[in-house]
Structure formats: structure tokens, C-alpha cells
Amino acid sequence: MAPSIEGKRPEVKSPMSTTCCNREEITPRYRVTVVGSGNWGSVAAKLIASNTAKLPIFHDEVRMWVFEEILPGGEKLSKAINQTNGRGGWAKIERSTRQYEEDREAGTGIAVEKFSEATIGYRQDKEVAQRWARLFCTPYFLVSVVQDVEGVELCGTLKNVVAIAAGLVDGMNMGNNTKAAIMRIGLREMRALSKLLFPSVRDSTFFESCGVADLITTCLGGRNRKVAEAFAKGDGKRSFDELEAELLGGQKLQGVSTAKEVYEILSHRGWQAIFPLFMTVHEICIGQLPSSAIVEYSEQATNFSIVEGLAQYC
């Protein structure tokens, strides 16, 4: 979960003295709260706490809202976090983060301080975006800001559809060359659709961590790839819903539902023929096409120069 910054009404530090000449300079300080203590919420809290302790514009206490649960020893999660070592905010964060270090999702690498990146999209106020970046940025976790909200959001959404396609390729043992080709085509469809929907989307956004880097990560090891691989290995005999329940332990797929929404948009606007990968993924997910169709569609693949021309026209 991302932290919420109470930026509208920053607290003002009280003067040390009541006399005019001895007052400290008035400095705004922002409070940060993390809502949720799951894998990413815990990692985010750790990053934020390490930075608020050093940055004078923030209060050094970071509060984390948790979904209460009972630990194996019978103790409440919130009580265990609050009592850890009695050292205040940092100890709370550290304890909560350790609970998820065995998780194999993306947040784990950051929790153990492996090098990673992230992107923040902003519309106009670069100063606010940079303030958010300062909350998260560390030597091992680099955060960039780009003036492209729609581009960043669409990258984060559409990558999951491409990951389904990559998982199907893995499930049929088609090899790395085929998978790389699917990822490349997927990235181009991501870019073309984004620019058709929002002409303001910047090409450079797709070369940020939210674009090509996140796409690669999701296609190599994400939950959408994992479930799609199992779907293809079973020749589509078990639905994505069944496999999701069995393989993800309560986590949810994004790719299948996103593919459906994208399919509806493309059908409504008459763009089916120019986005064959996106169309094919949805039709495989609902059982209209076999998994092998993920590469067979290429016989009728569109000319991407036409797509790019449409993007420029729109």
C-alpha cells in the first residue's frame, strides 16, 4: 500500500520561545500513514520510516494501519508490532517487514535491500511528486517521477494482459525466443493503445521502470504468468478461476479481468484488427480459442506502422 501524506494542512512546529526575536523558523512537517500491513505495505513502511527519520519536513513517526489477525502464539498482530523492542516506529516497521521476507512477490526483494526501481506519475505539481519520491528513495530503491499519469497507470494495467500471453507460451514450452517476441509485440500494443486512448501519453514512459522493466518482471515471474502457464499445461480444461483459487492463496489475477475490459473497449471502438494480441488473450481466457492461438494469430498480425500512425493522428 502507498502512504498517504497529509499535505493539505501541514503541522507547524511550535516556537521554542514566546519572544519574537528567539523564535525558530516556522517549518511545515508532514505526517505519513501506511494503510495495510501486507507484503508491499510492510516494505513501504520500512522505506518510509528510514527516510522520515532523516528528512526534517516529515514527522519521524510512521503509523501503519493493519488488518487485525491472531499470530500462531495467540497474540494480536497489532500488539506484537507495537511492543517489539520498545523502540518506537522503526522497530514496528522492521518486525512487520520480517513477517513477509519469505514471500516471493516483488516486495521481498526490496525488503532485503536488493536493487529495484519504481515510477511515480504526476500531472502538474512536480514538487509534490518529488516529495513522494523522497519518501521512498534509497540507494537500493530508486524512484523516478514522470509527468504522465495516464501512461504510468496504463503500463501498470496492460502489462498483466501481456503476462497472460507470456504464461501461455511457457505452458506450451515454446521457448525464450517466442516469449521474447510476445513481450515485444505486447509492449507495442500497450504503447499504441495508451496513445490512442490518451494522446498525451509519452513514448519515454514506456522506457521507465513502470514500462518495459515492469513488463519483463511480470512476464518472467508474476502471478498472471504463473496461472496462465498452468492453464496452457492443462489444455484449458480448468478455468482461470479454478487455477487462481488453487495457486494464488487468496491473491487475485488482474490479467484476465483486464483482458476482458480491453476487449470491450476495442470492440466498442472498432479497433479489434489492430490489437490482435490483446484480442487473442481474452478469447483464450474465455475458451473461444485454444492456448496455441497466442502465436497462430501472427499470421494475420497487423502492420504496426498503421497503429503508430493512428496514435499520432489521435
TrEMBL record:
Residues 32-85 form the Glycerol-3-phosphate dehydrogenase NAD-dependent N-terminal domain. SUPFAM superfamilies: 6-phosphogluconate dehydrogenase C-terminal domain-like, NAD(P)-binding Rossmann-fold domains. NAD(+) binds at residues 223, 252, 254. Its EC number is 1.1.1.8. It is an enzyme of class 1 (oxidoreductase). It comes from Musa troglodytarum. GO terms for biological process: carbohydrate metabolic process; glycerol-3-phosphate catabolic process. This is glycerol-3-phosphate dehydrogenase (NAD(+)). PROSITE patterns: NAD_G3PDH (PS00957). Belongs to the NAD-dependent glycerol-3-phosphate dehydrogenase family. Transmembrane segments: none annotated. Pfam families: NAD_Gly3P_dh_C, NAD_Gly3P_dh_N. The keyword Transmembrane helix does not apply. Keywords: NAD, Oxidoreductase. The lineage of its organism: Eukaryota, Viridiplantae, Streptophyta, Embryophyta, Tracheophyta. It comes from the Eukaryota.
